[in-house]
């Protein structure tokens, strides 16, 4: 474990207001979509905090419920002052992280990794030895984690085709076996089904139990 103390990281996790987050889940989960978005963020944050390489987690959000939940889990909350999109939020979070924890690397982590395993995240962070590194998502076109060494600008380029954009910017892809939970972000019902198969965290599991109850009529509601 001593080796894990060499390269500490601060993680910035951006979270949209859950009232508008995860819109692609709405067809399958119209009633529980906001709760799922909130649960994903909570489980992602808790798993990140459990990694021995993570010294701090900054959640960039304007959602008061998410802010309360992640603060209770041990994260810091940074208001999304730019309010200008994902990359701007991450730049803001990275700036705060570099100021507060100047000796740490800074990594942007997607907020929708409900199956995230601390050991897999630790393996990824330990492999981030280049100035900038990134993890390609499960579909192979997006990015779930972008890491920058201390003093190196994060330069986030999230959005459609971000994997190619990050590679073109000079970031090095992390290609490790056994990091499926780091790659499994959730945008669709099929993604969520796969995450559940991997094993989701307690907050997401609680919401999914409500979904199951609604689907079987035990809540008297339709999911």
TrEMBL record:
<feature type="binding site">
    <location>
        <position position="162"/>
    </location>
    <ligand>
        <name>phosphoenolpyruvate</name>
    </ligand>
</feature>
<dbReference type="GO" id="GO:0043814">
    <property type="term" value="F:phospholactate guanylyltransferase activity"/>
</dbReference>
<comment type="pathway">
    <text>Cofactor biosynthesis; coenzyme F420 biosynthesis.</text>
</comment>
<feature type="binding site">
    <location>
        <position position="143"/>
    </location>
    <ligand>
        <name>phosphoenolpyruvate</name>
    </ligand>
</feature>
<dbReference type="GO" id="GO:0005525">
    <property type="term" value="F:GTP binding"/>
</dbReference>
<feature type="binding site">
    <location>
        <position position="159"/>
    </location>
    <ligand>
        <name>phosphoenolpyruvate</name>
    </ligand>
</feature>
<dbReference type="InterPro" id="IPR029044">
    <property type="entry name" value="Nucleotide-diphossugar_trans"/>
</dbReference>
<keyword id="KW-0547">Nucleotide-binding</keyword>
<comment type="similarity">
    <text>Belongs to the CofC family.</text>
</comment>
<keyword id="KW-0808">Transferase</keyword>
<dbReference type="InterPro" id="IPR002835">
    <property type="entry name" value="CofC"/>
</dbReference>
<keyword id="KW-0548">Nucleotidyltransferase</keyword>
<dbReference type="GO" id="GO:0052645">
    <property type="term" value="P:F420-0 metabolic process"/>
</dbReference>
<dbReference type="Pfam" id="PF01983">
    <property type="entry name" value="CofC"/>
</dbReference>
<protein>
    <recommendedName>
        <fullName>Phosphoenolpyruvate guanylyltransferase</fullName>
        <ecNumber>2.7.7.105</ecNumber>
    </recommendedName>
</protein>
<comment type="function">
    <text>Guanylyltransferase that catalyzes the activation of phosphoenolpyruvate (PEP) as enolpyruvoyl-2-diphospho-5'-guanosine, via the condensation of PEP with GTP. It is involved in the biosynthesis of coenzyme F420, a hydride carrier cofactor.</text>
</comment>
<keyword id="KW-0342">GTP-binding</keyword>
